[in-house]
Amino acid sequence: MAVASALALTGCSAFSEAAPAARPTATATPTQPTAVAIGDSIAIGFGVPADDAWPLLAAGRLGWNLTDLAEGGAGFTKPGVNSHEFDDQVSAAIRLRPQVVVIAATRNDAATAAAAPSTVRQATRAAIDRLATALPDSTIIGLGSVWGATPAPAAANVLDGALKDAVLAAGGHWLSLGQTFLGHPDLLQGDGIHPNSAGQLLLAKAVADAIAHARIEPGPAQS
C-alpha cells in the first residue's frame, strides 16, 4: 500500500463528521487523481484567502483534485475548534475513498508530547493504522510538523517521530522538509505561527517538489 506524507498543521475548518465541510480544488476532470488533506489551521489556510492553503496549492501543482479536511486547533490528541481530532478527519477521509491522503504532524499535540509522549505515539499509530486498513490501495504521505521562524522545541521530535513511524509501518511515504520558515519571520503572519500567503506558497512548492522528486504516485481510482 502506498501512503501519503503527514503534514504538521495547525488547522482551522468547519468540519462535520456526517458531511465534512471542506475546500475542494477546481472542478475535477475524469483523469485527476483524488486526494484529501488531514491537518490543522496551517493546512486549512488560517488567516489567508481560502485558495492559498498549502494543500490546495500543492495539489494544483501535482494535478490532483484535493479536499481539505483540516480543522483549526486539531491534533491526534487534541480536539479542534469543532471538537474533532485527527481521527475524525480520518473517518471523513475513509468515506471519501481518495487515491491520496496527505497528513502532517501538528504542534497542537506539543503539550501532550511533552507531558505524555506515549499518548501521542499511541493515538497517532491508531489513526494511521485505521486509515491504512480501510484504504489499503490509497497512497498515504506523511510530513513533519510546521513551526515558526525560531527553532522547534524538543517536543517536535516526538510528534514527527510518532507520525513517521506510523506511516512507514503502514507502508507509506515520509517526507522530511525540515523547518521551512526558520529564520524567515517575513513568511509568517503577526502571530509568528501561521504562514502568510507567501509562506503558504513556499510550503506548497516544497511539498509538491518533494512528492515529485520521490516519484510518489496516487493509488488506483476507487469506486
TrEMBL record:
Q: Where is the signal peptide?
A: 1-18
Q: What is this protein called?
A: Lysophospholipase L1-like esterase
SGNH hydrolase-type esterase domain residues are 37-200
Which species expresses this protein natively? Leifsonia shinshuensis
Key word S-adenosyl-L-methionine present in the record?
A: no
Q: Pfam families from the entry?
A: Lipase_GDSL_2
Q: Which UniProt keywords apply?
A: Signal
